[in-house]
Task: structure prediction
Amino acid sequence: MGATPSRFKSARPQFSFPGPSLSIPTLLIPGATLFYRLLYILPKNLLSHLVGILTHCRYPFGLHTVLKNWFIKQYRIETEEAEFPLEKYPTMGDFFVRKLKPGSRPIAQTALVSPVDGTLTQGGGFQPGNAVLTQIKGLEYNLHDLAGPGWNLEEYLQGGFLTIYLAPYNYHRIHAPIDGQVTRVSYVPGALWPVNTWSVSHIPGLFVVNERITVELSGPEGKALVVMVGATNVGRITLDFHSGMEGNRVPRDQAGHWQPPSPINLAKGQGLGCFELGSTVILVLSKTLMEKVDQGLLVAGAKIVRMGQGLSP
Result:
């Protein structure tokens, strides 16, 4: 696979891309709760970083185990597929980044599979000359804003997208949705607003405002961008194949791109990365892949998907 830089900062020249930001009128959004008004003022990225640290800490009197067991019970998390018995995960943070037991999740023999466990909330093809994604009915955002500078998006402009939300109770590792080679990765710093239903419904350009890491895969069936969007209390976003890139690092890295120095070939279902709490993955697909998507998935309404499940017939 080849050695990777110890820090993303040194991997490629950096560019400045602060991205869109939320202005003071955001505080006046109708229906905004006190929680959201406070969240506007609070340092969300630093707080989320601290939450990530605290979930991995061991506390006196076994409180870390109590917290882990409470979390599992509170969210009714399936534990049968975990790689190891529960006692092998001392803290909630250790449990949250668990891997699956080998063989527990068959990978569908289709061109495209779900990269995560979650809820498919939006999806559709791009209109000619208008590559916009639906956040929710009435709210849209642009593909170029989502990807950020430095991307050649020509092959995606006639394709489409799928948005999958990961709740706290979901398995939180991200896997390759197609057979392909990692061609480029980018990091765009940003805010860490929640990505729950209220936020998606009320905060314009939420997925463009928030921090994100994008991985491009190129394979025989087409190309895919896997956009991993950060959120409040997501301590980190990490990649399985590049330890030098990490979301919500303190101090924060600048925006930039990285290209593998040697080929990184992945089969469907192989690991890409991990969220350390619930968040969202947006799949942006080239035309050839979008044409293969099961049309039933594009009908309005949320749909539960599981990692490895076929998204094409």
User: Anything to note?
Assistant: The first strand starts at residue 118 and ends at 125. Residues 109 and 292 are 13 Å apart (CA to CA).
